[in-house]
Design goal:
The chain is of the alpha+beta class and 238 residues long. The protein has one domain. Helix content is 16%, strand content 34%. The protein is built from 5 helices and 17 strands. It has a 5-stranded antiparallel β-sheet, with no helix packed on it. Strands 8-9-14-12 form a 4-stranded antiparallel β-sheet, with no helix packed on it. The chain has a 3-stranded mixed β-sheet with strand order 10-1-17. The N and C termini lie far apart (54 Å).
Length: 238
């Protein structure tokens, strides 16, 4: 006799106090945003004089699993970026979103400050997960919507002890250019390091409630929560 145990689901909540973000740019499950080029592609093709159909990338199980798992954060407003003489200027259409850049000394060994500029978008979303689940944070690899000059910073995060979702990325400034990234562009993919599926629920709350939830990210509280975890980190020093 065989017994089948249904895998449980990771419940994830996303909170914003901006109504236009909640309505038009919700955080969605990845299966809701499969790339158009992949859905329109044929699964098989024939080579002349070949009797056996050949599979395309669309039929690859590894790619199918990757594309359909996790959740995707969409860009919540049109973003214009101008690169002129290695200087970056930017403007959000919503006139609300803020950008912060980390000092070069924090990241210079990774990317040349002469060739790249750092941007950190203040996300309107606060994320929450009751389970202690790690999520891989990365650029949606199979979505070709982001300009090649934009390099999303990858990492691993969790949303039980902290809940911010600010987006770090580097801009290649080696050539002058003007970039426009439309609202709704897949910006970040959150992939759980688990075999469980993620169910995302978006919430519109008032600003006071949002700020109350954001207090979870205060430096002292954040450091205390991660003190034990940090001691296990290979980069940690006493």
């Amino acid at each position: 006799m065989f017994f089948f145990v249904k895998k449980s689901t990771i419940e994830m909540d996303a909170f914003t106090h901006w109504e236009h973000v909640y309505k038009y740019s919700p955080i969605i499950e990845a299966r809701q945003k499969v790339p158009d080029w992949l859905t329109s592609m044929e699964g098989k093709y024939m080579i002349l004089d070949d009797l056996v159909p050949q599979a395309t990338i669309k039929m690859c199980p590894a790619i199918q699993d990757y594309v359909l798992r996790g959740v995707i954060m969409l860009l919540w407003s049109d973003l214009a970026i101008a690169i002129e003489e290695r200087i970056v200027r930017w403007q959000f259409a919503d006139m609300l979103t803020e950008n912060e850049s980390h000092p070069e000394r924090q990241w210079a060994p990774f990317r040349s400050p002469y060739d790249y500029a750092h941007m950190k978008l203040r996300s309107p979303w606060i994320l929450s997960c009751k389970e202690e689940v790690l999520f891989s944070w990365e650029k949606p690899f199979f979505h070709n919507d982001l300009p090649k000059e934009i390099e999303i910073v990858s990492g691993i995060d969790e949303y039980k002890y902290q809940n911010s979702s600010n987006v770090n990325f580097f801009v290649d400034v080696r050539q002058d250019n003007k970039l426009t990234i439309p609202q709704g562009t897949p910006l970040v993919r959150l992939l759980p390091l688990s075999d469980k599926k993620v169910r995302i629920k978006n919430h519109l709350v008032d600003e006071a409630e949002w700020k109350k939830k954001a207090l979870k990210n205060q430096p002292v509280k954040f450091i205390n929560q991660y003190r034990k975890m940090a001691k296990k980190c290979p980069f940690h020093s006493e």
